[in-house]
Amino acid sequence: MTLASVLNLHPDFSDPALHAEGHYIGGHWLPGGGIPVTDPSTGAVLAEVPDASVEVGLAAVEAAAAAAPGWRATPARQRSEILRRWFTLMTERAEDLAVLISLENGKALADARGEVAYAAEFFRWYAEEATRIPGEFRTAPSGANRILVDHEPIGVSLLITPWNFPAAMATRKIGPALAAGCTVILKPASETPLTAFAMARLGEEAGVPPGVVNVLTTRQPGPVVAAILADPRVRKLSFTGSTPVGRQLLAEAAKSVVSCSMELGGNAPFLVFDDADLSAALDGAMVAKMRNAGEACTAANRFYVQDGIHDAFVAGLTERMAALRVGAGTDPMTQCGPMITAKAVAKIEALVTDAVGRGARVRTGGAAMTGAGNFYPPTVLDNVPADAAMAREEIFGPVAAIYRFSEEAEAIRLANDTEYGLAAYVYTADLKRALRVGRSLESGMVALNRGLMSDPAAPFGGAKQSGLGREGGTTGILEFMEAKYYAVDF
Ligand code: NAD
After folding, report:
1. CATH homologous superfamily of domain 268-455?
2. Ligand 1 geometric centre to CA of 158 (Å)
3. Best mutation site among 115, 160, 258 for ligand 1, i.e. most ligand atoms within 8 A of its Cβ?
4. Cα-flanking dihedrals φ and ψ of residue 247, to 5°?
5. What separation in angstroms does the CA of 4 have from each of 46, 47, 51, 96, 446?
6. Through-space distance between the first and last CA atoms of the chain, rounded to whole angstroms
């Protein structure tokens, strides 16, 4: 069954022009097959996309390198206007893109709509940033000469993205790369390539010149990516995905000293102090845990709740989680869609079984759902011991693990007891405490009395083994630029 025939059945999907299936290299669509894309709600095959060989990977480098001088020389205003048109097209076709994301990823339509809006904003933000690339002109401390710093596009960039945000993880990289003047090769996750190809179609329509954005899919990312990174024309790797794969890619990139930006895994603590507004903390907890059914790098993985508010928080979260409607992402009533694969469900099951075996109590959910599709129900566990595997590993699913604490110092110690350092959440009515705790948390981002932190205008990224570099904000564009210093005497 082809994507088009499936989508034709779907009343909300109106735009056949977005049904692209094929590598997009040098402005050409190269059809092929080899990688089935399935609907995680049913297991049905939605489409097949091509399986790139090393040769196809190198053809993409060739196309990106050929387009690089022209794109670099394109005035920033023009690059900006193309990105802005791409934003507008994404916004106009938002519903189609949301349905596509929901079909291949499984996330609830409301989450998919949120993702499209978030993803498009990276194009708008970087359309604005393209015309404000910073430089410096200073007097040397000796007073004898001048220091001039310019920023140049770093060069051909390889962008590798995960399946959990098929649109936003791509735009968060393409936006700054194109704004900086770089040409790119995007390798989306093979679970969710259809959104990436649909976005490339919109890019074409927006006026992105051939070769500036190239998209390929492969079942053998190891050798294809290694060959691309070994080509001396490739100067940047921007990766979003798991920490273990990130470590491998850092080692691969080291061979040709390629600049790396790494957005890796998380294990976010969510701290609730006695003085927190309970209802606000519960609202925030639901967003921080259940956006994308828990399949988010920023997802609250460990809830640390102080003694005085603990029981009310457990009761409130249990009530809200148990009330969520589980179903196919494209069903407008769904609040919690399926997991991406059966393997993901098995991992969640193993983590819950381990925690329960060590003394955790199941308040709601707690076992995979039977029948078709990769469904796991919203689950709340309390009394989770600190040595449970889910305290160390990303759950990446709709399971809220609650731990109790008494003292602020204890909460900080527990929160930091992880190799990860991406996101953290703090709920308290005391501003001084919020900032004090925020400073003590070893993470790249801290949400204070908020359940959502992602914002294209803010620097997104992690400390410790959650990554290197930042995406978004005013500094995100510099990840795709090389500073050039001119020593000036005048
Ligand atoms: P993953 O690491 O398995 O895959 C990510 C990408 O890398 C995919 O495109 C995949 O095909 C590719 N890949 C896998 N093995 C490779 C190899 N040997 N060589 C080259 N490429 C390879 O991650 P995933 O399961 O797709 O995504 C989930 C992970 O991503 C979670 O750990 C999550 O926390 C993380 N994530 C992080 C952020 C962030 O901004 N920090 C955002 C979203 C997801």
Report:
1. Aldehyde Dehydrogenase; Chain A, domain 2 (3.40.309.10)
2. 14
3. 160
4. -60, -45
5. 9, 8, 19, 12, 42
6. 69
Cα–Cα distance, 378 to 370 (Å, whole number): 14
Residue by residue, DSSP assigns 282-348 as: HHHHHHHHHGGGG-STT-EEEEEEEHHHHHHHHHHHHHHHHTPPB--TTSTT-SB---S-HHHHHHH
Is 161 a pocket residue for ligand 1 (Cβ < 6 Å)? Answer: yes
In the chain, which residues have pLDDT < 50? 1-3, 5-9
With tokens 């508010």, the residue in question is: 309
Q: What is the pLDDT of residue 490?
A: 77
Where b means 16+ CB within 10 Å and e means fewer, 117-143 reads: bbbbbbbbbbbebbeebeeeeeeeeee
**Tokens encoding 338:** 């399926």
Q: Tell me the pLDDT tens digit for each residue of 184-201.
A: 999 999 999 999 999 999
For the chain, the structural domain boundaries read 3-264+467-488, 268-455
CB 422 within 8 A of CB 466: yes
Distance 212 CA to ligand 1 centre (A): 23
Alpha helices in 397-441 (DSSP H): 408-416, 431-440
- Residue range 3-264+467-488, CATH number: 3.40.605.10
Mutate to test the pocket of ligand 1, among 164, 216, 224, 343 (most ligand atoms within 8 A of CB): 164
Residue in 362, 384, 365 with CA at minimum distance from that of residue 326: 365
Q: How many CB atoms lie within 10 A of CB 479?
A: 23
**Is the beta carbon of 428 within 6 A of some atom in ligand 1?**
no
Residue listed under structure tokens 């100067």: 235
Q: What are the catalytic residues?
A: 263
Read off the pLDDT of residues 87-126 as tens digits, 9 standing for 90 and up: 999 999 999 999 999 999 999 999 999 999 999 999 999 9
CB 443 within 8 A of CB 463: yes
**Do 456 and 121 contact (CB within 8 A), yes or no?**
yes
Whether this prediction's pTM lies above 0.85 is answered by: yes
Cα 420 to middle of ligand 1, angstroms: 15
- Which residues, 6+ apart, have CB-to-CB distance to 489 below 8 Å? 144, 145, 146
